[in-house]
Every structure is written in C-alpha cells, then in structure tokens.
From TrEMBL:
It is found in: Cytoplasm. It catalyses: Endonucleolytic cleavage of RNA, removing 21 and 42 nucleotides, respectively, from the 5'- and 3'-termini of a 5S-rRNA precursor. The gene is rnmV. Residues 3-86 form the Toprim domain. GO terms for molecular function: metal ion binding; ribonuclease M5 activity; rRNA binding. InterPro entries: RNase_M5 (IPR004466), RNase_M5_C (IPR025156), TOPRIM_dom (IPR006171), TOPRIM_RNase_M5-like (IPR034141). One of its GO terms (cellular component) is cytoplasm. It comes from Romboutsia maritimum. This is Ribonuclease M5. Keywords: Cytoplasm, Endonuclease, Hydrolase, Magnesium, Metal-binding, Nuclease, Ribosome biogenesis, RNA-binding, rRNA processing, rRNA-binding. Its main location: cytoplasm. Belongs to the ribonuclease M5 family.
Length: 180
C-alpha cells in the first residue's frame, strides 16, 4: 500500500494502476486540467504527499512539469517507454502490473533547493551526450536510477533535482558498461 496519492493522466491509467496495487489516485484529465484538479493535487500533497506518474511522452512530461511547478516537493515515478507501448500507443494504461510496481518502487523526490552535483562534463565523460549511443545510454541509466528518459538537458536536471548520489550514478554506469 502506498500512502501518497498517485496523480495520473486518465481513467485508463487509473485502471492499470489499480490492477497493480491498492492506491488512491487523482486524474488530470490530460493537459487541460478540469476545474479544481490542481487544488485537489495541492490538498493531497499537504495531507499525504503526491506521486506524479504521467505517461513517458511529451504530453506526460508537460503535465509533470506543470504540477511540479505549482506543487513543490512532489515525488516522481517514471515508467520506461518500452514498458508503456502497445500498438504504437504510449501510456501508463499499457503497462503490466509488474512494470507499474517497479516504477513506483523507484520513486524520487524532487529537491526544493537546487543542487549542482552533476555537470555537463559528467554526461560527456560517460557517453551520455555527444555520441551516437548517448540517447540509449541515458535511457538505460534513467531506468536503473528511476528518473526516466530525458534529453541531455532534462537528464542533467533530473540527476541534480531527484537526489541521485554520485555513488548511485557510478554504480548505474558500471551496470550498463560500455556494451551499449
């Protein structure tokens, strides 16, 4: 049982999460946010905490940013893109209960004060930017660290803002090695 309230995009996402575990959920209804939804999310954050669990696509990322900007201190769960795909559609609703539980077990809390533990040079040195398999390496690393996929700028922000330690980063790098 998860004590926080999970924020997802739509009813099909609620169904998928409920198949995986017993949890209270709020739906955003997509990017439009019907009247009162943001207030419910703010109230949920104050009462029990919130986990933002949006689709691993452009719209999901926009929704995640919108909520995080208005509701500080949220936790974030990321589902790997390939675990959210079905017939060309990407979404939480396509994930297996096992994938959903795995994503929620790697929840990260966004830090309120800005950190700069990681710099662009860390990405360059470790093949996460500026070479042909950088995108694949960021994707694999994001799965291991539970911070999801991001372009180089997003990935660097997530490393710094979701409390990833240098030790976790190096351990994850070691596990993907140079064989990608």
């Amino acid at each position: 049982m998860i004590k926080e309230i999970i924020v997802v995009e739509g009813r099909d996402d609620v169904t998928a999460v409920k198949r995986a575990l017993d949890a209270e959920l709020i739906t955003t209804g997509g990017f439009g946010f019907p009247k009162g939804v943001m207030e419910r999310i703010k109230s949920a954050q104050e009462r029990r905490g919130v986990i933002i669990f949006t689709d691993p696509d452009f719209a999901g990322e926009k929704i995640r940013k919108k909520i995080a900007a208005e509701v500080p201190g949220c936790k974030h769960a990321f589902l790997p893109r390939e675990e959210a795909k079905k017939d060309g559609d990407i979404g939480i609703e396509n994930a297996t209960p096992k994938s959903i539980i795995a994503a929620l077990n790697k929840v990260r809390t966004e830090s309120i004060e800005k950190r700069s533990e990681f710099k662009q040079v860390d990405l360059i040195r470790n093949g996460l930017i500026g070479n042909e398999d950088a995108s694949t390496r960021r994707d694999e690393l994001g799965k291991i660290l539970g911070i999801g996929y991001g372009n180089a700028k997003q990935f660097l922000n997530r490393l710094n803002n979701y409390g990833v330690t240098r030790e976790e980063f190096l351990q994850a790098l070691k596990s993907i090695g140079n064989n990608l």
